[in-house]
Amino acid sequence: MGGEVTTFGSFILVLFLAGYLGQQYLPPPKPKVIGLDLGTTFCSVGVFHSSSGVVEVIADEHGRKSIPSAVSFTSTEVLSGHEAVELADTNPQNTIYDAKRFIGKVFDPEVMQQESARYPFKVISNNGSAEFLITTNRTFAVSPEFISSRLLLKMKKMAERQLGVPIHKAVISVPAEFDERQRNYTVRAAHLAGLEILRVINEPTAAAMAYGLHKVDVFNVLVVDLGGGTLDVSLLNKQGGMFLTRAMAGNNQLGGQDFTQRLLQYTTERVRQEFGVAPTVKEDIQRLRQAVEAAKINLTVQTSVTISVPLHLHTSEEDPGAPAAVLFRTEIGRELFEDLNRDLFQKILAPIETVLDEGHLKKEDVDEIVLVGGSTRIPRIRKLISEYFGKEPNTSVDPDLAVVTGVAIQAGIMGGSWPLQRSSVDVRL
Ligand SMILES: *[C@@H]1O[C@H](CO)[C@@H](O)[C@H](O)[C@H]1NC(C)=O
Ligand SMILES: *[C@@H]1O[C@H](CO)[C@@H](O)[C@H](O)[C@H]1NC(C)=O
Ligand SMILES: *[C@@H]1O[C@H](CO)[C@@H](O)[C@H](O)[C@H]1NC(C)=O
Ligand SMILES: *[C@@H]1O[C@H](CO)[C@@H](O)[C@H](O)[C@H]1NC(C)=O
Ligand SMILES: *[C@@H]1O[C@H](CO)[C@@H](O)[C@H](O)[C@H]1NC(C)=O
């Protein structure tokens, strides 16, 4: 009798051990919840691997970790991301970008008119809501949330391909200034893509989480997000493990493309000085712009770059029909780039001062400064911010991937944890 119990007990113990050891040797479970950064110009998707505590930003089949936020319609297909951008030149009126600027917003007719004039595609008003008019072999209108849903679907598929499991749940980030309607329409876009949204988090909060600031003893965090076209500054305040947005300010006319434009003006002037005329051929101007953009990016790591661009200039007045092929070469030093943009860089401090004022804080009260957006790689901008605060900003996470990294961490928290996980993301949020 006693023996039987012992045998039975051993049997249980063996089962228990087998289960325990099995868990040790089984492959770790796949993340079930993805984190989505649906940006105005680029989107990314990430997951949190609870077994290793590592965030993986998922790459496409070419290894690219962000996809352009563009969707292009042809008579036979709807293309998203890089494939859509490839069609932007040949199919401009049906290639939609910047949909995030329109989602969930109600516009006055005049404002809508102005907005529409900025784009090669047609923006129409449906009782105050924006819609994009597409003309392939038929004409139809699509909503901003439909455009967003195609991008989200693309990212869902990238994640499914990488993880090898179907994905139905996600966490998504939105700008802190999005109102309830804009948030609702963003969630609606996810539903259209077959995704249930477990939580909507603010982009600056996500960026702070990317640095693990939800786990450490900080109170006031300032997030500076300088993207291609806009600057957003947020002052976060951590209370009971939760980040609250205490103040927001920004400049929607300041970003990386303005710095590129200054450099383009300068190089165009150099062409005029050297050859007597400015480039007029459309392809030349495009090539010059690309070279200048590449130079700007290189100048964040190198102190000097040489650009070299073949141009076709109408130098001869007697024969205006025949452009002369020339090679334009010039060296651009980092200091020159900084001089050309000095006044623009200085403008970054204005919204920082505004949020400190509104938050009733002195700059000494800011515990951590987090930089987001590609333009915050510019050394002069980092220096400006660190000199202003008298301390170094947090820059170890790629500023283009800080938001998606934080959203993926939040997705990991929402996805719950595995019994043996070594993750330290177990704080209350
Ligand atoms: C448009 O073209 C597609 C593919 O060529 C075709 O399937 C569709 O029926 C066409 N629609 C119209 C309205 O002509
Ligand atoms: C248009 O919007 C107004 C208020 O935003 C609403 O009252 C009205 O019902 C809407 N009309 C239609 C046709 O959707
Ligand atoms: C947003 O969605 C919630 C829940 O679906 C709803 O209760 C709320 O009225 C919506 N708000 C707006 C402004 O659309
Ligand atoms: C920028 O740097 C890359 C490699 O770091 C190089 O291939 C490229 O030619 C550089 N571009 C310019 C404009 O200097
Ligand atoms: C950045 O954030 C971490 C918290 O994860 C902190 O320990 C560190 O001191 C911060 N500052 C800098 C300049 O990296």
Characterization of this structure:
The protein has 429 residues and is an alpha+beta fold. Among the domains are: 147 residues, Nucleotidyltransferase, domain 5 (2-Layer Sandwich); 87 residues, Actin, Chain A, domain 4 (Alpha-Beta Complex). The protein is 38% helix and 26% strand. It contains 13 helices and 18 strands. Strands 1, 2, 3, 4, 11 and 12 form a 6-stranded mixed β-sheet that branches. Strands 15-14-13-18 form a 4-stranded mixed β-sheet, with helices on both faces. A hairpin with a 4-residue loop joins strand 13 and strand 14. The radius of gyration is 26 Å and the shape is globular. The N terminus and C terminus are likely disordered. The chain binds 2-acetamido-2-deoxy-beta-D-glucopyranose (5 copies). One 2-acetamido-2-deoxy-beta-D-glucopyranose binds next to helix 5. One 2-acetamido-2-deoxy-beta-D-glucopyranose (NAG) binds next to helix 5. InterPro entries: ATPase_NBD (IPR043129), Heat_shock_70_CS (IPR018181), Hsp_70_fam (IPR013126), HSPA13 (IPR042048).
